[in-house]
Amino acid sequence: MAKKTNAESTPAMELPAFCPHCHQSLNVYDPDGNRVWLRLVVSASGHRGELRLSPKDEGWERLSDVPLPEGTIVEDLACPHCQISIVDPASHCGQCGSLAARLMTFSQGKLRPLYICVKVGCPWRGLPKVEAPAIKVEVARQKAPEQDALLRIRNFSEVSYGFNREAALQEVSRCLNCKKPRCVAGCPVEIDIPGFIQHIGAGQFVEAARKIKETNALPAICGRVCPQEDQCEKACILGIKGEPVAIGKLERFAADFERETDAVSMPRKAPVTGFRVAVVGSGPGGLTLAADLAIKGHSVTVYESLHKPGGVLVYGIPEFRLPKAIVEAEINYLRRLGVKFEQNAIVGRLYTLDDLFAIGYQAIFLATGAGLPVFMGLPGENFCNILSANEYLTRINLMKAYAFPDYDTPAPRGRQVVVIGGGNVAMDCARTALRMGSRDVTVVYRRTKDEMPARVEEVVHAEEEGIRFRFLVNPIRCIGDDQRWVRQLECVQMKLGDLDASGRPRPIPIAGSNFLLEADMVVVAVGSGPNPALFAGARGLVRNERGYIQIYSPSGKTSIPGVWAGGDIVTGSATVISAMGAARKAAKDIQETFLQGKKD
Ligand code: FAD
Ligand code: SF4
Question: Which atom of ligand 1 is nearest to the CA of 533?
């Protein structure tokens, strides 16, 4: 048999290593996270046990529960997961000629073989030269562990635990580091996705977070709530034949690592310019623009009508999907950038836009969102215990009704809850009701599961938690008792017709199909409208026929010179990342306007 000796090159000290058979990670880390070991099963001198190897100087440092005197030829090295031997009868040590074990490592953006000599004490580390061909290994898309469904419906703790190091390293090994990365084009804020993924692959987790933050100031939030399946992951080349790289989970991993290890550092800020910017609304749109312009050296103040900044991130999306401590940490990052926040400040009541210009702001960005509750106009919709999704979620999230009696906010409750709607908001209400102790929670939606606008992950989680779905059902009347408390919903069965203006099949009621659903609490989650308070103080601001702010350029110029707008207040209810994308465009335009030294 031809003796294969593998050329050596400088070995990577961070050794993300995988079994060549089952592709599971072979890495373990010291508790301080600074040192990586390979974990293998070793058989030697009639003993079998664990062997740990870590690259040190020119050789290996060893830890083993089996006696391994120098010079011993071990009988076998195997994977601790699948127990299959990794000793390769066709491979030999490049130094002493003994047999070599073969595993995989992620090096220079590719999976490549790594060889280990079976002679104890031999310093040889057979890493291939980087030009050696990369090995094609089918690594499955990694799944993040989650809180068990039966447990989590009794608490508000986060459902997904995210990737650990091993899963993150395994997942990045799937990325092809495309020359023309389609994933970047799918991201509204154009994160350098392959760039941050390569940093993770090299074990540079903090650098990965910094790379993301070059274009996204809220990575831990986006890594949790962005609909990646419709954006970057939808565009990923691997998705054509199989499953795309789990970009969102990797983004979360990098951001969480940076925060949890206290490694958050501030970007270099431009010198103070003297320009002042007012931002109205502190949701993801307002926060993004504030960060972008603070870095450019401008003085930025965010006006927020509620007592806490964050917009939907704090009052809408529940703790179990987006812990508030994470939103707070990302807002604190903005504070450290120098952004000022004025809370309990309703623009339109406390200040008009003219007042803000008079105070000395040269540019104003309106990001007031689409938080106006919308009802269906059903007979009986004003019975007690029928609530808008906004009120319900605000009580529970922002005002922490779930933490009663620590927080003295009354929370509406019901044993049989019906949630009307099929979007993220409906899923959040249904899952919240379950956690608040409801016995039976049903979502009614007038189209089918295929047309539901909610994120796939949210629907799957809701199903796992025992939420019931009634598709092709529309409520037409609320029925109450003599005390005016809701008791039932009269519904009608629907069928799908031709496509409507939204491109979805139009739901059509089936005559005579009426039936009753028992309900002692109803949450209406069928959409929302533009937050109206601002408009009383915005003379000359043109709105479109739906009541949202009319913009006149892709960067969000409004009818008032010096005033830009972006996010849900322009588009209607959309996504976190689309609000952030709009804000980045406005920030760029404001910056260019300032550079010209004048107001627009
Ligand atoms: P908002 O986040 O709505 O923030 C607007 C802010 O402006 C608010 O804080 C408001 O109090 C403040 N404001 C309003 N009027 C004034 C005024 N006159 N003066 C001062 N301040 C004012 N998107 C996703 O991508 N993924 C999800 O999983 C997801 N889940 C969602 C769940 C729920 C329950 C809801 C309601 C929305 C969800 N969305 C999700 C949508 C997403 O949150 C929004 O698209 C996004 O927050 C819009 O950002 P924004 O900055 O435009 O406005
Ligand atoms: Fe990696 Fe997919 Fe982006 Fe290519 S498209 S760089 S495989 S994440």
Answer: 18
